[in-house]
Amino acid sequence: MSVTVSQIMEKMIAVSEGNIHDIDHFIRVWTYAKTIGELEKLDPELQFVLEIAAITHDIACPLCREKYGNTNGKYQEAEGAELVRDFLSTSGMTEEQIGRVAYLVGHHHTFSNIDRIDYQILVEADYIANATENGYSVQNVESFIQKTMKTESGKRILKSIF
After folding, report:
1. Number of helices (H), then strands (E), in the chain
2. What is this structure's pTM?
3. CA distance 22 to 50
4. Pick the CATH number of 5-161 from 2.40.50.100, 3.30.420.40, 1.10.3210.10, 3.90.249.10
């Protein structure tokens, strides 16, 4: 890994062109993902990929606003995978790492067929950030915990907040 999480964070902040909402959101998702990943004892390689995916998961939002007029999750998934590949192409990350990040970015609003723990944690971290930012109801949160959450750490964090 020749690039650091902090370097990707700095680059993503620059790409966000001063959109404080977008910057605050991906920093919150990264914080939750980093915390859950560490509590779940991910190996360092997987933790690195998870953190890069968390930072870049909404990379398509500016394009989606311009192209579609909104940031619908399906639009983000459709546009995000290629954008993140380009974004990371000169990072020094391996093609395997970039491919996994692109997969995660391209699926972070899809809650079915979650194939690995990094994907699960990204979904949980994004949900926690969205729930707190948007004032989700207790019923919505309880339903998400029962139907979608799998990590004990993510469940504890979300229950502590709500």
Report:
1. 9, 0
2. 0.96
3. 18
4. 1.10.3210.10
